[in-house]
Design brief:
- The complex is a heterodimer.
- Helices cover 26% and strands 31% of the residues of chain A.
- By secondary structure, chain A is an alpha/beta fold.
- In chain A, 49% of the residues are buried.
- In chain A, helix 2 links the parallel strand 4 and strand 5.
- Chain A has a 9-stranded mixed beta sheet with strand order 9-8-7-10-6-1-4-5-11, with helices on both faces.
- Chain A is built from 6 helices and 13 strands.
- Chain B is an alpha/beta fold.
- Chain B is built from 8 helices and 17 strands.
- Chain B has a 7-stranded parallel beta sheet with strand order 7-10-6-1-4-5-11, sandwiched between helices.
- The termini of chain B are far apart.
- The model of chain B has no long low-confidence stretch (mean pLDDT 95).
- The chains are: A alpha/beta, B alpha/beta.
- At the A-B interface, helix 3, helix 4, strand 7, strand 8 and strand 9 of A face helix 3, helix 4, strand 7, strand 8 and strand 9 of B.
- Strand 12 of chain A pairs antiparallel with strand 9 of chain B.
- The structure holds flavin-adenine dinucleotide and adenosine monophosphate.
- The site of flavin-adenine dinucleotide (FAD) has 25 residues of chain B, from helix 6, helix 7 and helix 8.
Amino acid sequence: MKILVCISNVPDTTTKINFSSDNKSLVTTGIQYIINPYDEIALTRALELTEGSGGTVTVINVGEPSTDPTIRKALAIGATDAIRINAAPRDAYFVAQQIAHVAKSGGYDLILAGRESIDYNGSQVAAMIGEILDIPSISICKSLTIDGSNAILEREIEGGKEVLNCPLPLVASATEGMAEPRIPNMRGIMSARTKPLSVVEPVEVPVLTEVMGYDKPKPRGQVNLVDPDKVEDLVNLLHTQAKVI
Amino acid sequence: MSTLVYCENAGGKFKKSTYEVVSYAAEIAHLTNTTLTALSIGDVAESELAALAKFGAAKILNVTNDQLKQFVNMAYAAVIAEAAKAEGAKVVVLSNSFSGKGLAPRIAVKLSAGLVDGAIALPDVSSGFKVRKSAFSGKAFADVDITSEVKVLTLVPNSYKVVEKPQTVSITAFDPKLSENSFAAMVKEIVRAADKISLPEAELVVSAGRGLKGPENWGMIEELADLLGAATACSKPVSDAHWRPHSEHVGQTGISISPNLYIAIGISGAIQHLAGVSSSKNIVVINKDPEAPFFKAADYGIVGDAFDVVPKLIEAIKKFKAANG
Ligand SMILES: Cc1cc2nc3c(=O)[nH]c(=O)nc-3n(C[C@H](O)[C@H](O)[C@H](O)COP(=O)(O)OP(=O)(O)OC[C@H]3O[C@@H](n4cnc5c(N)ncnc54)[C@H](O)[C@@H]3O)c2cc1C
Ligand SMILES: Nc1ncnc2c1ncn2[C@@H]1O[C@H](COP(=O)(O)O)[C@@H](O)[C@H]1O
């Protein structure tokens, strides 16, 4: 079994973010980068699926050389090898096209991604790869098991879940529940240094979207504190002021 | 030229989020000088379809193919893209539901269209086509310009009001071409918790954290939620400890929500938690620690023990409901 896991390089979740003076880009100084948490879940599940069965797990990233430490971390967690497509990720369509181009000739049985990257929250790459490769894509999966050449997946739906059966190959995007992310151990960290990381050049892809600017939510006003012995005041405020009940 | 809106149904009925997305698409059609075509797939009664006209649909395409009675991602994406082409649609709009999120990227690729997943406001069409969405998991907003000729959007539930804009409407059967390979993924089973309010669409949410001490204490949280008609949510450590299901986990690594009211009980207000809930219109925090960071991000607060405050709140709401019918 050959699995490809798409890894995106994102600011640590504790990061306070700031934007450049033209508001068009994130100020990256001082930011600690991590593997996108959902991708970590996908990677862990891929490792669980191949352990003992002699499969391989390749991680792939569209990024500049600065993302190499994040890729090495994925190798330390246990991926077999890595591919970096040497380009700044312009938009989801660009990223999906790059990954699909590499995957086309890779003979992967399964392509995994995260449900969304926690920086741009695009929520697009996995299903786009599926469409480009003309194979099924199952979004926001909380469980994935393999039975021969078939996958059984559970995806989230409003108020419940849908259980699906799907022949390989397919693309799935992972959410919580699919696996508990693993922390790299010392042996993993040592071996990651020598695992193969191949760098390939991007193919040409039109860019379809452009971020014109970012801004931050306005801070809320002072909190209105209600006496714990007068909770009926809160109910009144919610009714007359907030008008939500 | 047209704007196309895909109208998702649940068991043959349209949901509030569907009317929101139709109202939103009607306004986009108005802004872009196009007419609005609504597309329905599955088993929806004629009277239910006709109701879409109230929100601005001028034409309804109805797909009733037997193979499409149940949601199949690849096949539905193909049908929606085919309808978009047939209608000469410049903008395709879907709800940002779990199914919508899986469909939109495939439709965008088929139409070589730029996609914004999670629009929270009408596009600014004064120059270009700028769509506002949340970014950095609630820590920021982004204005994204879609530069392709055809554009695809998904609208976040609860971010656009249902607006009535009655139209005379025609309902037309649409018979798409289907390819067998679109049906590779087969749904085996759908499991739904009966009469549970779906969290991403909920207008009111009652959420609790580690301050509740253990899963056995969620009775009062559920009672409060039932009383308000609210969905229940929780912080990450709570779902990690399996006190509550993962589907209730909100925050940077859980789901992002923007209800009208978010009540946080025994939740400290860590940056990762706030990321997923900060776009709620009103936030109430109940916490026994006056220094809890969540109070800085709240509109209303009660400093007190949840085990004392929540039962009192339940009683106060019961009284309020009795008095206000
Ligand atoms: C990579 C990463 C991603 C994360 N993503 C998320 C995420 O998506 N969502 C999320 O929620 N967290 C997330 N976290 C975890 C986050 O940092 C916090 O640890 C978490 O939100 C804390 O949960 P809590 O508020 O329930 O618990 P605590 O921080 O333990 O807070 C409990 C609160 O309850 C109060 N309390 C205790 N007893 C009572 C009582 N009797 N009555 C009233 N109040 C009481 C306490 O004063 C305290 O403020 C993430 C962390 C990391 C590292
Ligand atoms: N630059 C990238 N390189 C590799 N994979 C990516 C990249 N960006 C996004 N992905 C993958 O696509 C998923 C969804 O990302 P997005 O569509 O950007 O929200 C992520 O969880 C990753 O698995």
